[in-house]
Every structure is written in C-alpha cells, then in structure tokens.
Amino acid sequence: FVMSMYALLRSSEMLPSEEQIEESLAGNLCRCTGYRPIIDAFRVFAKTDNALYANGSSVSNSRDGFVCPSTGKPCSCGAKAVNHNETSSESIACGERYRLVSYSEIDGSSYSEKELIFPPELLLRKIAPLKLSGFGGLKWYRPLRLKHVLDLKSSYPDAKLVVGNTEVGIETRFKNVQYQVQISVTHVPELNTLSVKDDGLEIGAAVRLTELQKFLRKVVAERDAHETSSFKAFLEQLKWFAGKQIKNVASVGGNICTASPISDLNPLWMAAGAKFRIIDCKENIRTTQAENFFIGYRKVDLRSSEILLSVFLPWTKPYEFVKEFKQAHRRDDDIAIVNAGMHVFLEEKGGKWAVSDASVVYGGVAPVSLSASKTECFLIGKSWDKELLQGALVKLREDISLPENVPG
C-alpha cells in the first residue's frame, strides 16, 4: 500500500484526487482488516481534504492549494509566493526536497537531489532487439519491427506472443504449459498504435490497458458525448477489470486472444461492433467482426501464421447506447461470475422510440462470450418501453439456459 501511494505521489504533478488514490491502491489485497482505515490514512494527500489537516487554524490562500508530500499538511513548498522577494529558508528547503517529479523528466541531471522513482538511465537507454536462450531449448525474442515479428512467426508457427505475461506466466508456472519459443512484442510500434480515425479508434494489439484507459478518457473529454457511449462503457468496465499493477502490463490483444469465457472486455467488443484486424506472415491483412472471432472455449479465429494487429472501435451515433455489466463476489480484483455488453440504437417513429438495432452479449454463461440472438431479434422493431424490457427478460431464458447448481 505504501509503495503504491509513493508511486502515485512521485509521478504526479498535481495533488491526487480521492478517486486516483483509491485506484492506485486497488491492486493490493488486505486480509487482516478493512480497507477504509488505509484509504482514510492516505486521504491526507487528497486535494479535496486539505482543510481537515489545517489544525483548525486559518491558512493563507497561498498555502491552501498544496499539501506537503512529507507531512501531509498544508504548506508553502509547492506554491509560488505572492511576493517573490519574500521566501523563507524553510519553504526553499521543503520545496527543493519534496517537489513532485514527473515521469516525463528524463534528463538524468535533474534527478541529482531527488528521490528516484525510476532510474533515468533506463528511460534514456536505447532499446535493442534481443534473443535469449534458456534450458531445454527455450528461446525468447524481443523484435522491434512488425516485419521481424512476422518472420519469427513464419519460422516458429507455434511461438507464443507475450506482452505483460499476465496469462502466459500463470500457464507456465501453475499449469505446466510449455512454450519453447516466446516473442515479446512490447516494443513493436505497429502493435502499439492509438489513433483517432474519421469513423472511430484504432487500438494496437499490444497497447497496455492503462494506456487504453488514458486514451479513452482523453477522447471522451474531447469528442461529442453521443460519439463515445461505448468508450464510457469500456472505461467503467476497466475500472473493475484488475488492479493498476496488472493493467500497467496487460495488453488489449492478450486479453482478446486468451478468449476467456469470463473476459470482462470481450462481450463489450462484440456488443459495440468492434472489428479485429489480422495480419499473416506474408503481410496480408483481413478484418473480422468481434462477434465472429471467438469460435470455442479459449479458441479464436487465428491461424498459426497470423497475429492480431489491431482493434477498430467505431463511434456511436446519436441515440445509440452501449452499457457494461459485471457481477462478481467482490467489486475489486475478482473475476466475474457473469458479465455483459449491451447495445441499443433507438429511432423515433410515430412519436415513439423504437429499437432499430440491438446487441446483447453475456460472458460466464457458456464456453464463449454468448450473443443472445433470440433476445436481439425480439427487441428490434418494437417500441422502447417497460413492457418490451419485461418481454426481453422472458426471451433471454431461451438464449441462456443455466442449471440450478451453476456458480453464482
């Protein structure tokens, strides 16, 4: 908990919000007590709680805006003095010692008198291709170009692509699965693209989930609200997807290609009408709808000569809505009992709103993420009201048949 909070404070240029504090601590599990006292202790750093730590005394305006990372109390070390000629030695010492450092400061000389959160030499180091060999003929590659990835895949069709090792690590350590050749694609630019297109977003397969979160938040803030309904659903689902430590390394493509039947994101990709771009060793590219990509339990529509290149997520139109759902034993850091992605497009007809298109996809109820096709057909063309929703619930029982002893 302490190191997570330290990382948040030292990597932020502004005081964290309470939401950011809770998010930074979400990846830590505590079995001995509740989380509330821990979160309350760290709230001393939150910008919304400055007044609680002023000991009841009035604090000047120049001090209200900053809480010292060392003491957790308002001070002048982070604020500019109103009169630049009046600067106490105490504030200078405090300011020099505790000024927040951003990850973007990669000039090694600027770290001479600051606590280091990440060695600047590693940030400045030029990335090079790697090839490592291990026991039993194990080979590990780190290519830097897509062409090199495809060449390796051509030479080793059964090679496993790795980004964050969040799934492969579990398979090799606990399930005794062996991958003789592993290819790390973390530094391949073509697989790390995040770009805004005329009709939606293109998301590289190796993009980390944390980076996807940041990008979606930026797009949601900049675009019209009706265009980003699906993006908001992804942001809400990612909030409870996993702890920050996992999201920092786990990738979009890794989660998709694992094809877990309880994946939190795959039902949303399907419901939102996402398209997957796939490239083979000869650089031929094909596109498939997300709903057609998952063909069986942990099986996807990828040949041994192909890899997932990117995901295309379209804008939503006015009166088009996408919503997420997840039910788990606990809110944080837990796999879903059941989850869902839902999409509906409404059009006005004769003074009433009617369903023009609908997608309802559930996870955790079948070997793959399941489209409720009968329910979708039932919804389309009918007026949007409570009676329609009640009828859809009845129809849903025909799409999803669960035994009485099903988990959850």
UniProtKB/TrEMBL annotation:
Cofactor: FAD
Source species of the chain: Gomortega keule
InterPro entries the UniProt entry points to: 2Fe-2S-bd, 2Fe-2S-bd_dom_sf, Ald_Oxase/xanthine_DH-like, CO_DH_flav_C, CO_DH_flav_C_dom_sf, FAD-bd_PCMH, FAD-bd_PCMH-like_sf, FAD-bd_PCMH_sub1
Origin: domain of life: Eukaryota
Pfam families found in the cross-reference section: CO_deh_flav_C, FAD_binding_5, Fer2_2
Keyword match Transport: no
Protein name (database record): Xanthine dehydrogenase
Signal peptide: none
GO molecular function term, any single one: iron ion binding
